[in-house]
Amino acid sequence: MAKAVKKIRLHDLRPYTGDIGEGVLLFSKDEKDYKLPVREIVADIDTVRNAVADAQTAAAKSQQSATEATQAKNLAETAKQQTDTLASTVSEQAGTVATKTAEVNKKHAEVLAAKTAVDTVSQSVNEKAQAVATSEQSVTATAADVTKKAETVTQQAGQVQQTATSIADTAASVEASKGAVEKIAAQVTKDKESSEGAATRSESAALRAEKIAAQGLVDASTTGKGIVKLNNTLTSESVTEAATPSTVKQLNDELQLKANKHSPNFTGKPSSPTPPKDSNDTSISTTAWVRDAIAELVGSSPETLNTLAELAEALGNDPNFATTITEELAQKQPLSPLLTAIAAVTTAANKLMYFTGSNKVGLTDFTETARSLLAKGSTADIINFLGLRATVDKANGALQKNSNGADIPDKETFARNIGLSPDTYLRFRGEMPVDADINTFAPDANYTGTWAKSTSTNASMAKHFPEDGAVGYLEVYKAGNYSGAQRFTCRNGNVYNRMLSGAWNGTNGPWSPWRMVTTGVRPLSTAIDLNSLGGAEHMGNWRNSSSSLAVFDRHYPEEGGGAQGVLEVMEGGLYGRLQRYTTRRGTMYVRGLTATWDSSNPQWEDWIQVGYQTDGAFFKANFNDLVKPGRFSVTGEATNGPLTGSSGETILGVCEVTLRLDGTGVEQNYTTYGTGVETKGRKFQRIRTGNAWSDWREIFTSYSLPLVLGVGGERANVDPLDWQTYDFKPGELICTPLNTMKNIPAGMDWGVIDGNLISILVGPSDGASSGRSMLVWRSTVSTANYRFFAVRLAGNPGNRTITPRQMPVLTAAHTWAEKQTFAKGLAGELTGNASTATKLKTARRIGGVAFDGSGDVNLPGVNQQGNQNTTGNAGTATKLQTARNINGVRFDGSADININTLVGRGRVTALTGSNKGTPGIQMYEVYNNGYPYAYGNLLHLGGAAALGEGELLIGWSGTSGAHAPVYIRSRRDTADAPWSDWAQVYTTRDSIPGVNTTGNQDTTGNAATATKLKTARRIGGVTFDGTGDINLPGVNQAGNQNTSGNAATATKLQTARSIGGVAFDGTKDISLPGVNQTGNQSTTGNAATATKLQTARTINGIAFDGTKNIELTPRAIGTINSTTMSFNGGAGWFKLATVTMPQASSVVYISMIGGAGFNVGSPQQAGISELVLRAGNGNPKGITGALWRRTSVGFTNFAWVNTSGDTYDIYVEIGNYATGVNIQWDYTSNANVTIHTTPTYTADKPAGLTDGTVYVVYSSHIKPTAGDVGALPLSGGQLNGALGIGTANALGGNSIVLGDNDTGLKQNGDGVLDVYANNAHVLRFTSGAVQSNKPLNVTGDIRTNTWVYANRYSINSNSGSWISMRDHNVIFGLNAVGTSSAQALLRQDHADRKYFVGGLGNSQFGFYMINNSRTDNGTDANAYLQNDGTWVCGGNGNFNDVYIRSDARLKSNFSPITNALEKVKELSGLIYDKKENFKSTNVHREAGVVAQTLQKVLPEAVSTYKDANGEDVLTVSNSAQIALLIEAIKELAEIIETKL
Q: Three-state SS for 379?
């Protein structure tokens, strides 16, 4: 049932202010909401589209019907009897298709009708929109409502238009569908014609069937023609029977009742499930679903607007509804809060509306006067009405206040009338032109005044500003010289003046140079070269505040950040100009011009550092007359100097004179500048008191003290030293090489004479005599060579008596030549024998019997019956108790043995795979360790370089005296080659089966004693086995032979053969080269009688051709020559060897291994010395050599002598005997060496020997001395030139660098030591001070007992909280101040007093002054802070103003001062003398009140503090007194007012 529809009229509509949503919404006045759901209207249009789709589906079904007709045609072909019926049926179906086509046409007409209906609805919507436009009442309700309604209706009109467009699209789609249906109908017609053709063909088939029947009744099949059986059942499944026509008709009737699957055409009342309302898929839309959709569409619309026609009518059928509404709205007044406020005012008579605020309106009385005023017709009438005519007339000619004088007609006249002119005041001219040249600013009316220069652009000296970047202002005056002056004030405070230097030239001057008139400084910059600052305009101070400005290229005296400072350019000096530069570190430099100032080519002297120069003239006079303070360069002409030369002249130098404050005391300090060792760099000093000079006294330095004392220094090294002539000075400490000393005193035995240094310490002088006592010792680490002597020297040089006494060294054993007496006894053990000893300190056991020497003892088994343990070694032992093996040979001492050079290596597992053995010849023991025989000896042979190896195994038999087998194997010379299998070597002792023992042998081949062939052969057809002769037919008996081959009378070989390379067929003789004619034959192979090898071979380098035996020396088989020998006789020279060494090609090597003795714990006996000899080149002829000493024992020196040709005897020196040492030697193949195993000995070196060179191989055993390696000895010495540690030295001179080539120490003059870091001069040490050229950063404390002076001092201060200040970097006293004790932290000295920053322990801290005249304890002035925060000043305060904290927020508990006038009357204003404290004698005249009196009347105005002496002192509050006076004045004022 359809839903009730409610209609709504357009004039009931009102604007909707809510969410419009997806459709155009309209609302009624009664607050009920109504909407026009355009979306659902579109859904209805979709329904129309579905109808079109249905038409298309019907067309498709028609197509399907045509397909079924084709199927029916096929059935007709299978049955002759049914052909006609089937054709009829097809015709009927074609008619059905035509019917369905008509139905499609009908549907198409319905679709067109639907389109027309939609068009009508659209038109209705337009008409209703026009109706809305005519509804003037709704439009004019309110301007705001109409505006919103227009927006809403515009949206609705757009959506309606979209709906109309969609309907038009749908109609087009229907038209397209109609065309498709017409095409389908045409196809059906075509199919019908095809069916009729099929019927015709069916008749033909029937005729053929009759023919088949006539030919014979054969059953039809799917593969052949024949007759079929008819069947009238619809359920038959037979494939051989045919359907009857009635069956086909029945089937066709049933098919007519079925709808096609494609585009079905239903008749009757087909039903379908109704889909859900919100369904949006391919489900069939039932009439119920469509009615519900339409009801929902119209259900929410008013009854009068539930159709499109009603809607269009409501809009007035206006197709331009939105434009119409917009134009109407444009003619309306916009909504205004002001008009709304005016509309809300309630009017009344005689009221005038006025505004009380923004968009607020009020009413006030509209008086008669106001109405009269408004009634006036002109401004003149109003002015007259108000009585202002006279006033207005005057105002018309008056100056306007807001014009600020701009409306003055003649300003110049006005200014003159009031006494002002450019001559009497400076007029501000504003900003000068940016590129102005201020030379052009003339002193006239156009320029006089003040000009601003607000930027540094073009503010340069090129534009004649006084300095570059001169931001500031210029004042131009018509005054001064030539009535023209300028003054420029820079923003940095510098002020400059200049005046005309002549009459104004009309353009730019002439102006004098700028002169600075204040103490300000001008900035230096990178554009300024100090050489350019010398003109009059440059006079004054210039500052350098940058670390990058000061460079030598800009002629600064120093470079870098340390050169920041101030330059002063002054008039004076030679050529009228001076420059003085002071660095921030206080270093001052000066210089002057060397020629008249020329700005294009300034000529300046070099900078001179102030305080480092001597007087301008050389000093040549008497030193006794030199009392003027200063520094003087002294020449040799000066007299009474401290040091003179050989001719009596004063040594050149510099004298510094200091005058004492009293004007009489004088100090002279002299530094010599001589060139000799004893005249350079020495310092002397003397003083004058009164008129008398003291003697010159030398100030010793590290250079001069050793020079004078003879201790170290320049004279420490004496080479050579002659004991008879050298001048031994008392206190002298010198050293001299041992091997260059001359006239060594007798008894001074040094042992080995070598280059060791000898140290000599000379004792004090024996008065005026020439006698000397001295200590002399050897500088060596060798205990054996160390000596220490006490020497006494007497007599004159050249005839001295020298007595040396060797002093024992208690770290070694000594033999005392004389009896020693020890008064105090001896501590420790005494080793050795005493001639008068009667008892051993410790009893010893002899043969087990204790013996201490005090009596005889008997030894069991010696001098009485018993046994002795005779184990150990006896001096006469002839046999070892236990025999020992030496290289596998047993040795018990009873007989000599021979040591095999091939030593057994023990048992080693057999090598496998490609493993390589040890090079050389090795012998191992075979003992069940992987070899082919269980026991035996193995000889392994391997080269040192080649990889090829071989092994020979000789077995041991298990039976004594029995034979054992021998095996061999080898491995080729590649790294991965495996070992061959072992092969047994057979000997005559081996059993050979089938030969000398039962068994079989492979006897293939020929045997010399064979009696029968193993296999019989046939000769000429006759069997022959060797056991007997045979006869051959046709040869030795009658018969025939196959004569192919050779016949006894053959003259030619069937096949020619080659003999010795020559073809031979038997027809003629041939000649063989190398046999019967000249030529060669290949004679390779072995000849049983060969006596010489065709090619000689070398065996270990020795040629062998088989003609003679050769001998393989140790050298030939790769071993070194070796022998054991002893050097007996003690220290001396031994003839070791004789060598033959051809020139330019031979080398000999000899080494000695071992030393003196065989003692455990004496590693020095295991020494090694190596001697290498090398032939010369023949020009000159000879040999050279070197002895390489590794230890202190063994060969210590060597020499040689040429005996004949290339033969030389070699001698070696041994410092001690050497026994049982091993001598090894080697040599080139062309040399020869004979070692003398019993060398001849001489204590002294034989004459005529040529010395060799000894090189010591230094080690922990032999350590080099300083002299050995060219180093300075520990006792000191001189190093000449620069020294670099770990790097080259770039500082040069007398310097030492450490790790970095320009970081280290350098001596830069007498007494001057400088420290450099990266070539920067950091520190300077002199005898008077330490100078730091860089900031000094110290992480630890600096502690000194003397004063520290600094030009500047700063600390690396911190920032933080108040409480953290306790831990900040500060200046503080190292020791905490004691309680009630005074301590100063800082002090400044004045002429008659001293000022301090300090305080009194646990009491006060502040500022104090003490006069130099004070003798008692106390201060003469103070201002300090007490512990309670009270600030106390001993004197008065002089302030610009004083403000006392008096904020009410700091105060509480207020109460008034009462009876103030009476209290004031109790006080007395007095003038009095006041001391600083109770102990002070200093008084000040003051005026004030007495604290005790004030305390009585106003105790709050008085407080107490402790003075510098700890005494309680009363103080008064001025604020309190003022408060008291205020209240007193107020009381007094009340009294006066009362009286008046």
A: helix
Residue with the two structure tokens 């102006």: 511
Q: Which helix (H) or strand (E) holds 1532?
A: helix 1518-1539
978: preceding bond cis by omega (within 30 degrees): no
**Cβ-based neighbours of 909, under 8 Å, separated by 6 or more:** 929, 930
E strand intervals along 485-629: 485-490, 495-499, 515-516, 521-523, 540-544, 565-571, 577-583, 588-592, 608-609
Q: What is the DSSP string of 749-787?
A: --SS-SS-EEEEEE----TTS--EEEEEEEE-S-TTT--
Taking the C-alpha atoms of residue 1197 and residue 755, their distance in angstroms, rounded to an integer, is: 14
**pLDDT tens for residues 1254-1272?**
988 888 777 888 777 777 7
Q: Where is average pLDDT lowest: 314-318, 830-834, 1064-1068, 1414-1418?
A: 830-834
Return d(Cα 535, Cα 529) in angstroms, integer.
Answer: 13
Please give the full DSSP string across 581-615, using - where no structure is assigned.
Answer: EEETTS-EEEEEBSSS--TTS--BPPPEETTS---
pLDDT at 1047: 45
Place of tokens 């010198």: 734
Confidence of residue 191 (pLDDT cuts 50, 70, 90): low
The two most distant CA atoms of the chain are separated, in Å, by: 212
479: left (phi over 0), alpha (psi -120 to 50) or beta: beta
How many CB atoms are closer than 10 A to CB 904?
Answer: 14
- List Cα–Cα distances, 264 to 283, 425, 1346, 1416, in angstroms: 15, 118, 129, 141
- The SS3 of residue 1466 is helix
List Cβ neighbours of 502 (8 Å cut-off, separation of 6 or more): 482, 509, 510
Residue 219 DSSP one-character state: B
Q: Give the pLDDT of residue 1395.
A: 92
CA distance 625 to 691: 10
Identify which of 40, 42, 53 has the alpha carbon closest to the alpha carbon of residue 173: 53
Here the tokens at position 581 are 């530069």
Measured in residues, the chain has a length of: 1540
Indicate the pTM of the whole model. Answer: 0.27
Mean pLDDT of 1050-1061: 74
Cα–Cα distance measured from residue 411 to residue 199, given in angstroms and rounded to the nearest whole number: 132
- DSSP annotation string for 1007-1040: -TT--S-SS-EEETTEEE-SSS----BTTTBSS-
Taking each continuous run of H as one helix and of E as one strand, the counts in the chain are: 17, 72
Query: Which amino acid type is present at position 228?
Result: V
857-894: pLDDT as tens digits: 787 766 777 766 655 554 456 777 777 766 556 777 77
763-789 per-position pLDDT tens digit: 876 665 678 899 999 988 888 888 999
